[in-house]
Amino acid sequence: MVTFEKRSGRPAVALLLGAGIESISELGLARTTVSEVCARAGVPQGALFRHFGDMQDFVVAVAEETAFRQIVDFQRRFDAAPRDAEPFETALRLLWESAKEPANAVFTELRLAARTDLDLRERLMPMLEAYGRDIEAIAVQLPGLEIIPPEYFEELLLMVLDIFAGSTGRTAVRDLADLEESRIPLMIALLRSFLA
């Protein structure tokens, strides 16, 4: 179940949204400017405002496109996941792989910006809530995870997503494999202990 629709139906919009994702991921929101996005997209600066009312509208559209891409990617990974493996490990590795994607840096960046930008927070909140519901709807399908009581599933999922997002946001790429191999077994042990 995917709440989000692909926003990039028109070529110029697709170029702009892709450039916005790249720019925010690489430079951060503060250094992502109209000229930077348009240069990356290879379109004139006026093109951004032809398709989006202002920069805030564009940032929200980038967030929605990022959510769409991540949900589609997570569903693809989920569909390819082994069904006979340890369910907690499979679920955690799927979430870890998604967290390592460059697009995840866009969410991290926008969530930080929304902490002090009330308008951005208000506009992003429905999208972030829908994103969480979509991830949960996919993850809950994994055989073996039904042992998690429904009242805890969402909170546990959000905790794992926050831990992984924080890990990938603060760690050099060469250290990510070490983190994966040390944190996933620890998280499995904690989950099993909590559910015992």
Question: In a nutshell, what does this entry contain?
Answer:
The protein has 9 helices and no strands. The chain has 196 residues and is an all-alpha fold.
Helix-strand makeup class: mainly alpha
How many distinct beta strands? 0
The number of distinct helices, counting runs of at least 4 residues, comes to: 9
- Percentage of residues in DSSP E strands: under 5%
As residue ranges, the low-confidence spans are none
How much helicity do the residues have? over 70%
Using the CA coordinates, give the radius of gyration: 18 Å
Query: Average pLDDT across residues?
Result: 83
**Basic shape:** elongated
Biggest sheet features:
none
End-to-end Cα distance, whole Å, is 31 Å
The ordered H/E elements are HHHHHHHHH
Explain what you see.
The protein is built from 9 helices and no strands. It is mainly α and 196 residues long. Helix 1 packs across helix 2 and helix 4 runs parallel beside helix 7.
